[in-house]
Every structure is written in C-alpha cells, then in structure tokens.
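Hi F.,

I've been meaning to write this up properly since the lab meeting, where we talked about keeping a consistent format for the predictions we share between groups. The idea is simple: the sequence comes first, exactly as it goes in, then the structure tokens exactly as they come out, then a line or two of notes. No screenshots and no reformatting. I'm using this chain as the first example so we have something concrete to point to.
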Amino acid sequence: MQLTITKTIGKNKYPFTFEGQTLFECVMQSQKLSFFDVHKCGDCGGDNLRLYAYTTDKGGFDYTKITCGDCKAYATFGVPKADKEAVFIRKEDGKIIWDKFESKESKSKDDDDSPF
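Output, unedited:
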C-alpha cells in the first residue's frame, strides 16, 4: 500500500510517497515528515522558495533547508537523535526560524571592522 502526501513550498509542490503493509503503517511513516506547507519566506515575504539538501565537507553532516531565491534566507529542518527518519522545521514560539544569508565576503568585512 502507498500513501502520497503533497507539501507546498513557495510556488512548488513536492509529492512524498510512503509505503507500508497497511494504512496505519503508511500514515505512521508519513507523520515522520512533520512539517506544514510553507508559502512565503519569513524574511522578505517572497514565494520563490525551494527545498535544498547538501552534505558538509567537514564532518559529513546532512542538511535539508528551504531557501528563498530572492533574499537567500533559509529555514533549516531538524532531525531528532532518537528517530533519524523524522523531520521537522526548526520553530520558536510556533514560528519558523528563518536565518538571513551571510556571504563569506560580508563576514570577512565584519571581521575587519572588529576592534579586537
């Protein structure tokens, strides 16, 4: 048996398919994808959003994020240590945590201005 759930991220729709022997197993698997549709960037309000995944060079850590194509802000998904198959969006006070993009150039400029 299969269950397909579609999540909307910005203007894009992403179908996720879950398999199990029974409806119960399919639904249990689908609940591990525990995030809701995200229609707009929490920083600039744009809807030019997409899912993005990568593995770091150092440490080999896997990250999945929603990135904004307009302002480059991003929201990071978390994976609990107890269940590596579960996924959630980092939130605080019920709101998605959006991090502003900082280029390496802007970070080095800030470091140059440091009095220390």
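Notes:
The longest strand covers residues 2-9.
The chain has two helices and eight strands.

If this format works for you, I'll send the rest the same way.

G.
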